[in-house]
Amino acid sequence: MNRSTLQQRTQAQLKTYGLDERRKQRVSGMSGGQKQRLALAAATMHNPELLFLDEPTSAVDPENRREFWEQLFDLSAQGTTILVTTHYMDEAERCHRLAIMEAGEIRADDEPEKLMQQMGVNVVEIKAPALRSLKEKLLNFSQVRSAAQLGIRLRVLVHRDVIDPILWLRHTFPQLAAAELTLARPSLEDVFVTVTGKGRQ
């Protein structure tokens, strides 16, 4: 890239990533989101065919995270293949294809929606008293893959060989007779605990 092309490309990148008004600012004085945009601008100066990003939004607030991902989708639409590592399940769900790794081995690999459809469990959410003790009891049953408390709800993954998971839960735990039990849409976090060894907790 010659000097003239470099200058033109730099101007274009600063404008694309909303940094043209900060061209004279030191990087040390930028916010986390601005630093990430600057890093992305630098990484894409040469229009790469493949871009690898290792947890690019780990120190970025939710608003800047969303904006950052919009910029990644723009790059993808322009033909760049992007590999991203992340611990944020909501970010993983944005990807066109997802691989879940544990101890250096790929445990699942497919489109996020397909992974959620194929995970082999039904998700039941329970609103009831004494959720902590209920969770401990649930984990004693082989039919239960995972149980996790989310605020005032208990999210339970029940193996699909249980034909009616809600009926089974009410029958097995009489204290749930008047409780609110609903089937829920699977999430990528559910997929993660199903395909790794971190489910029964």
UniProtKB/TrEMBL annotation:
InterPro entries: ABC_transporter-like_ATP-bd, ABC_transporter_ATP-binding, P-loop_NTPase. One of its GO terms (molecular function) is ATP binding. Its EC number is 3.6.3.-. CDD domains: ABC_DR_subfamily_A (cd03230). Keywords: ATP-binding, Hydrolase, Nodulation, Nucleotide-binding, Transport. It comes from the Bacteria. Pfam families: ABC_tran (PF00005). Residues 7-58 form the ABC transporter domain. Gene3D superfamilies: P-loop containing nucleotide triphosphate hydrolases. PANTHER family: ABC TRANSPORTER ATP-BINDING PROTEIN, ABC TRANSPORTER ATP-BINDING PROTEIN NATA. Belongs to the ABC transporter superfamily. This is Antibiotic transport system ATP-binding protein. The lineage of its organism: Bacteria, Pseudomonadati, Pseudomonadota, Gammaproteobacteria, Vibrionales. The gene is drrA.
